[in-house]
Write a structure and sequence with these properties.
The protein is mostly beta strands. The strands form six sheets. The chain has a seven-stranded mixed sheet with strand order 5-6-7-8-9-10-11, with helices on one face. Strands 16, 17, 18, 19 and 20 form a five-stranded antiparallel sheet that branches. It is globular, with a radius of gyration of 22 Å. 4% of the residues lie in helices and 38% in strands.
Length: 519
């Protein structure tokens, strides 16, 4: 899955009842000869289930690989913003991605001759183009059996009447590139088993999209054009099969002034015990917390300011945070939400990794902030230049222990350097020191190429096992394979021959169960 653009994610599937091994799912946009969205299951035993088409049509058939190969190069790419939400207790997983630039070929499926009939939610338009980016999600069991059909993840009335075609607003068909845009922002499986979908939705022209519906309903009364488009962050919750919306689509963030946030970068959703949360970089960082039934617990606007201005949350009185990058991830476990971001001691470079923590109280009525965690503070020698800024990843196990990962800056100013991780106990004490993920003789030399977006490092954590995956140029032995178009990778896609490496780390984690865990 060696592509770029927030193109892969990792989720824990838990223990396979047949083998007794911990399994993890990798999901991403592959760029080899069988390109398109793919999944593969791995364990400490190696590859448990070879990679295959990530999505299935309504009849259970694979089709995305053939569609990707057939259309590769026609739309400037295939997909990005790829996310996994998983439930290790059942092995179910939920995946989502954004297919993009299909307005040049019509809308979803019109570039792919085969699967159109299976997309019962894709409505053609009398005038093309009608779709620019579109979010799709689907849920599976641990054996990759289909639990739900592919879904757009929302049920907002749309188009001018707000009643036609509940899935894809038509947008303005007057020129190429204007129309509906729906970016994936995250998925999660809630503690009650339901599925959460989080996305940015909107249209470029007033009167055509879901945001106008919310404005007409006085939910975002002061909403206006943002960067020339109508944009709104939305979320929905369905039952596991995706057939019933148990929480109808609603704006995720609504400020006290009635505005809504603009989701420009990749955001994430996470689910704790009885609640879920979503983050956005707008307003110096904001997070919205909800109970599983969809009622709002709290929304925090400007958590950057709260951390900087509240004594004891950051080590120094003049320390600052950089919360503006959307590709810094979040995770949840029990009552704690973990948010990865960047930290500047005394407001000065270098920018180093940081994990912010938010605790939801037992009554699910309030959220409080805990002191930040600084995972790089044990490195010797210390990091003297800013870390590679995207992404910072964090993952948590069911006990509340968490792992944070990031990349050092490479030899060149924009090139991502070697990936590093550190594990913490639920109470915030270190369970390990900082360690390099690579198995190279000199792991600090494992690097990647900076194509499009900073190549990623992703983590999943279950029990005492951490699964780490990252893009690498030199970390594994690989052949110069052919890409989707049949061209050598070293001479295509900007001259990139990059791979995805996976490695496992066993951590002797011991957690202290607090009183507020017992309910």
């Amino acid at each position: 899955m060696d592509n770029s653009g927030w193109n892969f994610d990792v989720g824990a599937l838990g223990i396979d009842p047949q083998t007794g091994r911990q399994e993890f799912l990798l999901f991403g946009q592959s760029n080899d000869g069988n390109c398109g969205p793919k999944t593969v299951v791995v364990s400490t035993n190696g590859v448990e289930v070879p990679y295959r088409d990530a999505f299935l049509d309504d009849n259970g058939n694979q089709f995305m690989g053939a569609a990707s190969v057939a259309t590769y190069g026609e739309t400037g790419g295939f997909g990005y913003r790829t996310d996994v939400g998983s439930d290790p207790s059942t092995g179910n997983y939920l995946i989502s991605t954004t297919f993009f630039n299909n307005d040049y070929n019509g809308s979803l499926g019109y570039a792919f001759a085969n699967p159109v009939s299976y997309f019962t939610y894709a409505r053609n338009s009398a005038t093309d183009p009608c779709i620019h980016n579109h979010f799709v999600a689907q849920r599976f069991d641990r054996n990759m059996g289909k639990v739900s059909n592919m879904t757009a993840g929302r049920n907002v009335p749309s188009a001018a009447s707000h009643t036609l075609d509940p899935y894809w607003p038509l947008g303005d068909p007057s020129s190429s590139g204007l129309g509906h845009t729906g970016h994936g922002a995250g998925v999660a499986i809630l503690s009650n088993g339901n599925s959460l979908y989080y996305l940015r939705d909107g249209t470029e022209v007033a009167g055509k999209g879901p945001v106008d519906y919310y404005r007409d309903q006085n939910l975002v009364p002061n909403f206006g054009l943002v960067s020339g488009r109508h944009k709104c962050q939305l979320h929905s919750v369905t039952d596991p099969t995706g057939n019933t919306f148990v929480v109808s689509t609603t704006p995720t963030f609504v400020s006290p002034t009635g505005d809504t946030t603009d989701l420009g970068d990749h955001q994430l959703a996470a689910a704790g015990n009885g609640w879920f949360a979503m983050r956005a970089p707008a307003f110096n960082g904001c997070i919205a917390f909800f109970r599983n039934d969809g009622t709002r617990i709290k929304q925090i606007y400007g958590y950057k300011d709260l951390y900087e201005n509240t004594e004891g949350l950051l080590p120094g009185a003049n320390d600052t945070l950089n919360t503006g990058d959307g590709r810094n991830f979040i995770a949840a476990s029990n009552d704690i939400l973990y948010v990865a971001t960047r930290y500047l001691a005394e407001g000065n470079e270098p920018q180093l990794p940081c994990v912010l923590r938010f605790v939801v109280n037992e009554a699910r009525t309030d959220v409080t902030l805990l002191p930040a965690i600084l995972p790089a503070n044990d490195l010797n020698p210390p990091i003297e230049t800013a870390i590679s800024p995207r992404p910072l990843h964090v993952a948590a196990n069911s006990e509340g222990d968490f792992v944070v990962g990031y990349r050092r800056a490479g030899a060149e100013s924009t090139a991502p350097g070697a990936p590093i991780a550190r594990v913490y106990n639920q109470d915030g004490t270190p369970a390990t020191g900082s360690f390099y993920l690579s198995s190279l003789a000199d792991p600090s030399t494992d690097n990647a190429l900076d194509y499009g977006e900073h190549p990623e490092v992703k983590l999943a954590f279950n029990g005492n096992l951490v699964c780490a995956a990252w893009f690498t140029v030199n970390g594994v032995n690989s052949d110069d394979e052919l890409d989707c178009s049949g061209t050598s990778k070293s001479t295509s896609m900007g001259g990139i021959n990059m791979d995805t490496a996976v490695r496992f780390f066993e951590v002797n984690v011991t957690s202290t169960v607090n009183n507020w865990d017992l309910y």
